[in-house]
Amino acid sequence: MTKSKGALAVSVELNDGSFRACVDDCRGATRKIFKGLTAEERNALAAEAWEVGIRALATAGRRARSADEPRRPIRLSTIPPSSW
Q: Is residue 80 part of a domain?
């Protein structure tokens, strides 16, 4: 699967045992972040950005699903009036 949005192009492959993503980002702001880093630092930063992004998306998905779950009604009789 390949998706392109202006200066950002993404290619994704999903196999039985792995997931591979290739990002081609020509945006100046992104280039500034990586400019001046060694290859090892660039790889580490990209890996960390991937980990943080995946974790954030998973958390957002869980929260969205839990928001759709029906809530138990709150009975005011169980809450003392001083808490209102």
A: no
